[in-house]
Amino acid sequence: MNIRRSFFICLPLGFVLAAAAYCGLFLLQLGVPTARSTWLHSVIEKKITAAAAIRKPKLLIVAGSSALYGISAEEIERQTGFPAYNFGTNAALGCEYLLHLTRKVSRPGDTVLLAFEYETYLLGGRTGETADEFFISYVLGSDAEFVRSLSAGDQFRLALMTPSDRLWDGVRAVFRKPVPDAATQSSIREILHDIDAHGDQTCAVPEKRPAQSPARTMLSGIPAVGFPPSPPGFRAIREFCAWAKANDVRVLSTFPNLCHRPEYDAPAAKKMPVQFREFYGSLGVPVLGELSESMLPEVQMFDTNYHPLRSAAIARTQRLLVHLAPHLRAKPVER
Questions:
Q1: What DSSP character marks residue 306?
Q2: 38-131+196-327 falls under which CATH superfamily?
Q3: pTM value?
Q4: What is the number of alpha carbons within 13 Å of residue 231 lying toward its C-beta?
Q5: C-alpha distances out from residue 292 to 203, 237, 311, Å
Q6: Per-residue pLDDT reduced to its tens digit, 145-199
């Protein structure tokens, strides 16, 4: 066999062997948590357990941390008598995966209020395309069932999107399970302690507010210029709404809390709320309230542009209740 022929045989063979080895490592570390996402796994497990334990028809508030910090399920339940739970977690997980979790705890007769952060609409979830690396890290370590439920093609694409450092962290964890140090364990306990019985985050108080936090006034592009054509989150929400209709789950929507900036008052910014209402209107999903009701001054924000102080979250919830309460059938609270 001459050298040229050997080269053309060995080159694709080497590629196949390398791909097989990579996929083998990907499958080997699937379901093995790494230190990076341990805290979020603890939060999600707590929320799934608490939400699933509510036997009566309930309201689930679904989003990332903008809802976790910014809408008070306790205040909604107190004022309406309708069981409410804050199912807000982390926006980096993307619309599709957050709605996947929501399906797990939704029951016929429930109401789901979608309050996704604007960036969440841009994140994919099934194949890793446009997905946040934190989402990939989380599902690989903490939700192997979700990954295995994907088609072989989607699993392969997810494997290709997995950062090399996450892959090797996972492989190392197979043979030597990472043990969180004392500081990490203490931080996780504090995070869980700060989430109350209604799923609300309670730590955003003035005395804990960072003196300097550039993230408080960070610009969010979508409110300034509008949604791009066909963002990935729209497809995921459309699929969820079809599922909800088939399972007697009512869906509502609202604008997420956001620190106000002058760019959101510019002529170009008028495009977004129109797109928002047109999209949800096409699904028959009511949009509760006005955009202006969700825009908050920096003085009312905690540590990021999506996290209000606790007092501001309650005030925002009271404004939301004007629109939300008519959609909830008041009844005695029974958990």
A1: T
A2: SGNH hydrolase (3.40.50.1110)
A3: 0.90
A4: 21
A5: 25, 23, 18
A6: 998 888 888 888 888 888 888 878 887 887 887 777 778 788 889 999 999 999 9
